[in-house]
Amino acid sequence: MAEMIQAVRGMNDILPPETFLWLYAEYIFRRTLLGHGFQEIRFPILEKTELFKRSIGEITDIVEKEMYTFLDRNEESLTLRPEGTASCARAAMEHGMLHNQIQRLWYSGPCFRYERPQKGRYRQFHQFSAEVFGLTGPDIDAELIVMSASILEKLGIKSFSTLQLNSLGTPASRSEYRKRLIHYLSENKDQLDEDSVRRLHKNPLRILDSKNPDMKDLIANAPKLLDHLDEESLQHFEKLQEYLKYAGINFEINPCLVRGLDYYTKTVFEWVTDKLGAQGTVCAGGRYDGLVEQLGGKPTPAIGFSFGMERTILLMKQSEKNHKIDTGIHAYLITDSESTFAAGLKTANYLRTKVPGLRLVLHCGGGSLKNQFKKADKSGAQYAIIIGEHELKTRSISLKNLREDIPQQSLYQDELAEYLKLKISKK
Ligand code: ATP
Ligand code: MG
Questions:
Q1: Over the stretch 261-275, which tens digit does the pLDDT of each residue have?
Q2: Is the shortest distance between the CB of 262 and ligand 1 below 6 Å?
Q3: Is the CB of 82 under 6 A from ligand 1?
Q4: Ligand 2 center to residue 407 CA distance, Å?
Q5: Angle, helix 139-154 to helix 231-246, in steps of 10 degrees
Q6: Ligand 1 atom nearest to 83, measured from its CA
Q7: Measured in angstroms, how far is the CA atom of residue 124 from the centroid of ligand 2?
Q8: Residue 259 Cβ contacting ligand 1 at under 6 Å
């Protein structure tokens, strides 16, 4: 036998029945986003490498070592998207959606990062994201955070999650702070790891986000950005907190919560959990008033968040909530010859059209009636629908209840549709 080819490391197959959890989560996301006036946007998984270099920044984990970048046949450097915000902003700009307009957008799909695979961290993972362009906040910041809380609530995982909040201020106030931070870190250079030494002058804020336990104390004692906020950012931050308190959303202020990228401004937030080991961030969000301009557009305020779907699903598995969507089969249609199969194919289609929500499996693959009945039983269906030579001649259809002791019935097609409609709506 030929050797089997396996999936790429860190890239998962998602199989039934777990796919039902995904379906449930995606259903809640979509419904909630629609309920807040968001519209879906779709864009390619591949973009020009330059887009991510320019938006995410050269001195970041993602751009330095995590991107899947390759030359296409035309020697153009392309990258599988490591995140969606840059692509979303690019698409919105390219189609003139941002000029003097407010956009509330959502999207979902795979992202790719070359990381060390472990629980909650993969090389292909999925995000579900929302972005708002054209509003300066803090009203929309609060609305977005309240929306993220309601998603967690509906998925039954809010009690596992804590909201952490911080403000990064404006680029001007941050550049003052940046100097102080570099000064502090330089004085303690012996405690910095290799990555941090490299970032010291290029991206010092990112050092605050380091997960190296040896640097924990150093980071805890570093000067705090919050103590150096400009007046406008401070007011923004205070107002946001006020709104959240009013909305009954608990939060913690985490002064070390940063995004080491220049385009981030003011509000940053994360929903974190202690139930997934080191991969504690389920949803990360923030305001990025500088991004659109950095990508060549007019200055446009913006804020967004991304849920990591795999981490969300892992949490849902630990929740008490029943995430089951009813996907059971209602009816299994069996036939006993080629000519009756042709009639069955037509009838199955008729019934599915006439009976909204009907889940009907048409038996394929032939076999004896006895065998087909066994399959019908195994499918979990409530009813077997039988079309044999006799039924074909009498233009009738037989219906057998597989779960209750009720005599088999003979019905016309439209009668059967009415019957199933009634039974299914009662369930
Ligand atoms: P982390 O600190 O865990 O590496 P990050 O800051 O790199 O996360 P973001 O770029 O903010 O993550 O992405 C948003 C969300 O996407 C994260 O909060 C997380 O839930 C999810 N995520 C990021 N990277 C991965 C990955 N490799 N595998 C699975 N989920 C991921
Ligand atoms: Mg990361």
A1: 667 899 999 999 999
A2: no
A3: no
A4: 62
A5: 40
A6: 10
A7: 12
A8: no
Burial class for 196, CB neighbours closer than 10 Å (0-12, 13-18, 19+): buried
Residue 279 near ligand 1, beta carbon < 6 Å: yes
**Could you tell me the two tokens for 157?**
């995982």
In 1-84, alpha helices (H): 18-35, 49-56, 61
The Cβ of residue 381 has, within 10 Å, a number of other Cβ atoms equal to: 21
Q: Where are the beta strands (DSSP E) in 288-415?
A: 302-308, 331-335, 360-362, 383-387, 397-401, 409-411
Separation of CA 82 and ligand 1 centre (Å) = 10
Instruction: Give the residue from 76, 79, 73, 103 showing the smallest Cα distance to 91.
Output: 103
Structural domains in the chain plus CATH codes? 18-170+230-318 (3.30.930.10), 331-425 (3.40.50.800)
Nearest CA to ligand 1 atom 10: 83
CA-CA distance, 294 to 297, in Å (whole number)?
Answer: 7
Helix (H, G, I), strand (E, B) or coil at 70: strand
Q: How far is the CA of 296 from the centre of ligand 2 (A)?
A: 26
Which atom of ligand 1 is closest in space to residue 311's alpha carbon? 20
Task: Provide the terminal-to-terminal Cα distance of the chain, rounded to the nearest Å.
Answer: 48
Prediction pTM value: 0.88
User: From the CB of 210, is ligand 1 less than 6 Å away?
Assistant: no
Q: How far apart are CA 168 and CA 234, in angstroms?
A: 10
Cα 249-38-24 angle, rounded to 5 deg: 75
What pLDDT, in 10s, does the model give residues 87-137? 999 999 999 999 889 999 999 999 999 999 999 999 999 999 999 999 998
Contact by Cβ (8 Å): 125, 110: yes
Q: Distance between CA atoms of 137 and 239, rounded to whole angstroms? A: 9
Residue with tokens 């102080």: 180
Write the CA distances from 105 to 33, 151, 312, integer angstroms.
Answer: 9, 16, 20
